[in-house]
Amino acid sequence: xxISSINYGSSVLGAQVRNINQQLTDLSTQLSxxxxxxxxxxxxxxxxxxxxxxxxxxxxAAYTDTITNVNVNINLxxxxxxxxxxxxxxxxxxxxxxxxDLNVNGQxxxxxxxxxxxxxxxxxxxxxxxxxxxxxxxxYNTQSVANAGDIINGTTTQAGLKTVMAERQxxxxxANGMGRLVxxxxxxxxxxxxxxxxxxxxxxxxxxxxxxxxxxxATVTGPSGSPVSFxxxxxxxxxxxxxxxxxxxxxPDGSTEQVDLTASSATPTPVGSFAIDPGNPNVVPAVAPNxxxxxxxxxxxxxxxxxxxxxxxxxxxxAVTAGDNFFNTDSSAIGAxxxxxxxxxxxxxxxxxxxxxxxxxxIAPGFSAGDSITVNGTTLSFVASGATGNQLNVGxxxxxxxxxxxxxxxxxxxxxxxxxxxxxxxxDAASLSISGSTPGATAALGALxxxxxxxxxxxxxxRVGSSPASSATTLVNGSATTVKxxxxxxxxxxxxxxAVARVDDSVTVQYGAQADEDAIRKQLQAVAVYGTxxxxxxxxxxxxQVAALSLRTTxxxxxxxxxxxxEDIQTDIAMxxxxxKDASTRQTQAKAQLQNIVDQAESASPDxxxxxxxxLQNALQASYQTTANxxxxxxxxxx
Length: 639
Fold this sequence. Notes:
Largest sheet: 4 strands, antiparallel
Oligomer: single chain
Distance between the termini: 25 Å
Radius of gyration: 42 Å
Structural class: alpha+beta
Strand content: 15-25%
Helix content: 40-55%
Strand order of the largest sheet: 3-4-7-6
Number of helices: 13
């Protein structure tokens, strides 16, 4: 029989010593790292909470980075917008208060300032944050606005604003310099005068809006007809001193101007008056006053007044409208409507009914109950009576129809009708689509002058349609031959939605911006037109032209109720910034709580670890002493 030796390492006491050593090693690691364990298995039962908390802390860190980056973009946007507001105020003050003295280039000091400020605006709108253009919408890798020089002067293949303005001025003035108005020569009768627009439905020149008269014995006819005209017949009777003829004109920019001519027997004839023929009582036989001569004097005075209006306010309005044609992404559809059924037939007007039987004032063919049209995807139905919502009575007026269409398109400029020509305005030329859903409705739309289906708007920029411009009668799509000033994203949707960031689990912010937003575009347009316009330094009407344009520029740069302002954009992005600030505050609080959960689950208390180490060291020392004593034990000592 053999007897196995006693192995200390396999003894209970040896195992206890090894266990204490391992505990000491673990505690030493905890003391040096501050962690309960270097692996999840050693963390204990609360580690599941710690893992979930770590995931949330990681999300918060990502949101913090996003908020930091978005704040950089918003701060740069706000700085740029503030610069735009400063430029607006500078140019507005200059246009309102600066002297109208012209330099050798036919511009005022305020206009020179505006030209320089336009270049500054372009630079501001091309602001970048990293490689992101802040005013390009979703096309953030694309420069927001074309170069200032190209916008104004064009390129080798495309026309700039200066060319568009010159073409439009020629088209609005006409070959005779009278705003496309024609004074009948000879006069219709020896005692009458007649003024007419040159072409029906033309977008150019002065439009006759209204005529009123206090001329004794005179008959005023119109404005009516196609093209629109009016006439005044003195009927062989001289007016009295102080009698007046007033004619109101609509200018291309939508403004109105009135010409007042007063009958006068004073010598010399005062400005704004026409001479009443006195005859000649001092000869034998005496010559009686002649109304025919008075009519000729009225005709001459009208010619002078219209020429002055055309070469002053019309020139300024033409420049503003050319700027709109070049910059504005809004546009319109124009229909030259047929005459109505009334006897005698005349151009349709806003009061003309959508359906009726001759000789009523209605279109033919008209709309019938059961017809419908589709406007930008919304259906308008025609009923016999009792229309509600998106319905119209067949006996309603054309103006009612246009108002319904405007409500659907959301245009900022109401649609109009003048001289039988209907203009449907839209703030988004790309989206306008009007079509007949039934054959009868299609035919009725044709009677309104819209022969193509669907009805769409001409895409800007708009250019004078033919050469020579002085006799042109249409505006056409000039995108192929004209500089595109805005080169960023121009798709549907709000500008703010072109940049979206998630800053919390359930919170997103929108902070995009586009240079073609109304407030920015209108300011850029007004400053560009004012800084580009020039005239003859010594022209008869030059000072009045610049004065009229200065007034329009001041008005254009004055924020109007209901229209977007630069400050509105700043408010929008400030709200996004406030939303991020609130989210950051919540996340800071949550971060502290989550970190506390992690710390409680994973961190080791230095004091507790030190105490446990001391306790284990004492236990280990005792074990070693016991081991040493046992090692010295012999049978003799044991006995």
